[in-house]
Amino acid sequence: GNSGSGQYPAITFYASPSTLAKGGGQTLLTWNVTNASTCNASGDWSGSRSLSGSEYQYNLQSGKVFVLTCYGTNSQQASQSATVSVY
What we know:
The protein is an all-beta fold and 87 residues long. Helix content is 0%, strand content 63%. The protein has strands at 10-16, 19-20, 25-34, 38-43, 47-49, 52-60, 64-71, 77-86. The strands form two sheets. It has a five-stranded mixed β-sheet, with no helix packed on it. The chain has a three-stranded antiparallel β-sheet with strand order 1-3-6, with no helix packed on it. A hairpin with a 5-residue loop joins strand 7 and strand 8. The radius of gyration is 14 Å and the shape is elongated.
């Protein structure tokens, strides 16, 4: 039951490629968020992020989990993670 207090953030977030060969590859993180006012990165990246963007992660020697948590206007929050596997 949503009582008109706003919607939870909707996050599209992915890494491409999501699988890398060992030796320090790179991946491009891309995200787009609606129904949010701010976003914060955690896990294997950090800091505040805009509601949409893309960012390279370089020299990945091991598996990583990038987490994006976004906050709505009435304290709703949602998280999405993008995992990069390194073999």
